Amino acid sequence: MAKTRRQMALTLFMSPAGYYKDSWRRPNSRAEEVGSLELVADMARAAEDAKLHACFFADVVSAASLLDGDMKITGIYEPMTTLAAIAARTQSIGLIGSASTSFYDPYNLARLLSGLDNLSGGRAGWNIVTSWMGNANYGLDAMPSSAERYRRATEFVDVLLKLWSSWEPGAVVVDRESGDWIDPSKVRPINHEGDIFKIAGALNLRPSPQGRPVLVQAGQSEAGLNLGSSVADFIYTLQPDLAQAVNFYQQFKDLVTSKGRDAAKTFVMPGIIPIIGDTLKEAEEISKELGHYINMDHGRSWLANQHAIDLTDIDLDDHIPSERFDENSPKFTTRGKHIRSLALDRGLTLRDLIIEDARGGGHQWVEGTASSVADHMVKWFDARACDGFNLNPPYLPEGLEKMLKGLVPELQERGYFQAEYRGTTLRENLDIGMGSDQMQST
């Protein structure tokens, strides 16, 4: 096997209905099982057999996406409970779940994540999100501003890091003679008093074998990148263009370094949707087939709601006028800019945009054989556009199988991905060490 000194990190986005919107309508999908443990347990075990570093659940706390007909990220699987169940059915794969700093309480979430970390033998990770919707389910008339959400998130993460370090090494003594299970002098309160939270501590769960959960972050705004560069072990990012991805990668690494952290131990992980066939023609035919399943009415509604664009009077084969894109809208994010560029710079019609959004959701998508898709990923990796990828299965079950049993072995054969797990914890398998237990100044 060829060897390379630097290898990719790979995680699996747990999209049990398929990442390609409406691909669950295929006759042999497992759509009837969405919401069941068996479906996601099968996905996690398949990812573990392929030696992927982790499986990852995103989350929303609203039924809005379901009502809009989008099965991609629905919240049907609550991450913490689902990952705890998967932990009992796997041995080595990491378990990453999203949880919002806008809606959780720090002490509760610290316990949930520490519990998952302990019960899995040190395989837990937390994707730090601030949420942009869901306020109506938590007694809020509107979502706080981005600045307010990130101010809360910054202190929130600081509290969790303190709670997770409130047990010193050797705190558990199990002294049967004295009757002390812990040494109380090594379990200390944190006595946190900040602008938002007042929490005494200590945590009442012991540290896991990896010390504390791996921290992941998925925001691309200035505030999001500031937080991610301060605390995250790796970040998920939307990067559909190679040149832009190379620039983003360097800027983020420089930001990490400026905060006194090791940039080599902080991974940049763009999403990718590989549509794989035995030949390029077959891959293109699969992609065309998946496009036929798209519900255009749902696609129009989702595009309009997601990016605050009035599309009611635009025919599917017409173009969206430039004035319909509101740059001042809080929904005009990185993804919104990408949609505008596709519409105005590349001249995509509304139908084209719905298909593009259904296929990639702002991420890059690639059609080809396992070998040609591996070529693409290696090109990005060697160009320092990323440290690995979050693999989004376009459809299930065959699309997932083609990724894990075709694409991943191709990368392993070339020496770009691990053939075996190097340890038992997620930190060991990522080779990132413990990192800093305290946030750097933001």
CATH topology: TIM Barrel
Task: Look at the helices and sheets and give the structural class.
Answer: alpha/beta
The topology string of helices and strands comes to EHEHHEHEHEEEEEHEHEHHHHEHEHH
**Assigned CATH architecture:** Alpha-Beta Barrel
End-to-end span in angstroms? 44 Å
Task: Give the proportion of residues in helices.
Answer: 25-40%
Count structural domains.
1
Q: Based on CA inertia axes, which overall geometry fits?
A: globular
What is the CATH top level name?
Alpha Beta
Strand content: 5-15%
Mean pLDDT across every amino acid position: 92
Radius of gyration: 22 Å
Number of helical regions: 14
| Biggest sheet statistics | 8 strands, parallel, barrel
- Number of beta strands: 13
Structural description of this entry:
This protein has 442 residues and is of the alpha/beta class. 38% of the residues lie in helices and 14% in strands. The strands form three sheets. Strands 1-2-3-4-9-10-11-13 form an eight-stranded parallel β-barrel, surrounded by seven helices. Strands 5-6 form a two-stranded antiparallel ribbon. α3 runs parallel beside α4, α6 crosses α7 and α12 packs across α13. The longest helix is centred in the middle third of the chain and has 19 residues. The C terminus is likely disordered.
Name some characteristics of this structure:
442 residues, two-stranded antiparallel sheet, 38% helix, alpha/beta, TIM Barrel
